[in-house]
Amino acid sequence: MDLWRLVEGQHGVVSRRQLLDLGVGARAIEHRLARGRLHLVDRGIYAVGRPELTRHGHWMAAVLACGPGAMLSHGSAAALWGIGGERRGIEVTARMASPRRRPGLRVYRRPTLADCNVDSRDEIPVTGIVQTLVDLAASLQPRALERAVNEADRLDHVAPPALRVALEVHRCEPGVKSLRELLDRPTFRLTRSELERLFLPIAAQAGLPTPLTKQRLNGFEVDFHWPDLGLVVETDGLRYHRTPAEQARDRRRDQAHTAAGLTQLRFTHDQVRHEPEQVRATLGATARRLRSLRETPPRPPPAPA
């Protein structure tokens, strides 16, 4: 790889080791520094062409300064992934046993960090999205952590159910407990048989007959359907933001049912398991209203004047 292609891929910065590996000797480096073709950013790290660096350039310089295998992490990784912001300056994880201290950098020594927890974004080495969320969870307040998880879901980096499963690999790390507490109820999902076993008695106690299940209606599969009442109940496993495609499909489904004159209710699996009284009360009130509407004879049209 030639120098300019390397520099372009590294946001305008290069390390002394990389220059030497490309055949640019020590005297040539000093000459370029004197002529203003290289600009010292940190010990052994140079900006090429001009001294000003973009934000990505500063991130890349920090990674290069911390040696082979280093990567952005914690708040800086969150900023690069687009799920948060830096709070303590640039944060870098170094995989060297004893990285040098760097003014202005917060460096974490993790020589045993597995390759599966390392990623690259905008050509900058960075902790993977799950590792980043685990690291954030060790210091963020619950609301800030929830925002980060929501953003990761919204940007399609990782959905909450997949994140919950991935935490098994990180179970001994600080932050995992906080993430699990945040995720356990919102990502709670019953199996189909468990859902029916819990939901059907609630519906019966609310005065509803046994519904049809998994029926095709208006081009969509519905969870529970009472044809005599014109009532449909859908159950969701997630409370977090759904992807744009899923949201669009949900809107089309809701609009199709409304256009067909149906009443639709939506409960989460968590509500069915943990808030049965609320589900029962809502079902009962809705059923009474629908029965009243069906039992009330239609008004005759007004007599012509």
Summarize this, please?
The chain is built from 13 helices and twelve strands. It is an alpha+beta fold.
Account of the protein in words:
The structure is a single chain. This protein is of the alpha+beta class. The chain folds into three domains: 1-53, no CATH class; 55-183, no CATH class; 192-295, 3-Layer(aba) Sandwich (Endonuclease, Chain A). The chain is 44% helix and 19% strand. The protein has helices at residues 3-9, 16-21, 26-35, 55-65, 74-81, 129-137, 142-154, 160-166, 176-183, 192-205, 244-259, 269-274, 276-295, and strands at 13-15, 38-42, 45-48, 71-72, 90-94, 105-109, 118-121, 124-127, 212-217, 220-226, 231-236, 263-268. The strands form four sheets. Strands 9-10-11-12 form a four-stranded mixed beta sheet, sandwiched between helices. Strands 1-3-2 form a three-stranded antiparallel beta sheet, with helices on both faces. Strands 4-5-6 form a three-stranded mixed beta sheet. A hairpin with a 4-residue loop joins strand 10 and strand 11. Helix 5 packs across helix 6 and helix 10 packs across helix 13. The radius of gyration is 29 Å and the shape is elongated. The chain starts with a helix and ends in a 10-residue tail after the last helix.
